[in-house]
Amino acid sequence: MSHIFARTELLVGREGLEKLSACNVAVFGLGGVGSFAAEALARAGVGSLFLVDHDTVDISNINRQLHAMTSTVGEPKTELMKARLRDINPGVAVETRQQKFTPGLASEMLDGRSIDFVVDAIDDVENKTFLIVACVKRKLPVISAMGAGNKLDPTSFKVDSIWRTSVCPLARVMRKKLRAAGINEDVPVVYSTAPPIEPVAVKNGPGGRIPPGSISFVPPVAGLIMAGFVVTKLLGLNGFSAK
After folding, report:
1. For residue range 86-131, what is the model confidence (pLDDT) as tens digits?
2. Which domains, ranges and CATH numbers included, belong to the chain?
3. R_g of the chain, CA atoms, integer Å
4. How far apart are CA 229 and CA 238, in angstroms?
5. d(CA 29, CA 168)
6. Residues 6+ apart with CB under 8 A from 152
7. Edge-to-edge strand list for the sheet holding 157-161
8. Which residues contact 179 (CB under 8 A, 6 or more apart)?
9. Distance in angstroms (rounded) separating the CA atoms of residues 25 and 119
10. What is the dihedral of CA 123, 129, 133, 139, to 10 degrees?
11. At residue 26, what are phi and psi to the nearest 5 degrees?
12. How much is the pTM?
């Protein structure tokens, strides 16, 4: 009999589906990267998801974020994704927190719940660092997204340890911050080897700040790669070379 994961079962088998169904993955950040990662995990058969994002949909999100449409502007990203994922798989368990991750919330968000993997798609550099440090100290498997802004080449993404990255300006900053925090473990990241593009100087950001440019076909690729990495690791497969 056909079922929603019938095609997936052909790749991973019944045991693989059962293993994924028993897993809980936390996704921090539901923007252009995180929203696609969360949906790919649900469509792969991951049984429980913990979604964390403080934001609501802005009209500028529509060009690249899965939940962003003219009809959803102003609505919480967490609740939109929860409804979307439950529509995909009514059996998926989705817990949401409409809150920004900060160091003071690490224990509350990471302890006391059985998390098998953490997806870091946070934009804020300081809180991104805090999340990775918190995961490493708890020995929680984590994969982190580096910069997907100011890029036009979706084929330039790689998965590797943060210590073996190149070109990506965010990865350079993160290496320094992780060293300062006493972290030297291999943390897998998705990063782009394409040189950043200088944004066109249209000063439409707060205080004249120019936000990173983005497009529909770059951040989603990073999110899908992250989901693929997580699923293969949960299944004990060797689909990726990064630790």
Report:
1. 999 999 999 999 999 999 999 999 998 999 999 999 999 999 999 9
2. 6-234 (3.40.50.720)
3. 17
4. 9
5. 20
6. 194, 197, 215, 218
7. 93-97, 48-52, 24-28, 117-120, 142-145, 188-192, 157-161
8. none
9. 7
10. 30
11. -100, 130
12. 0.95
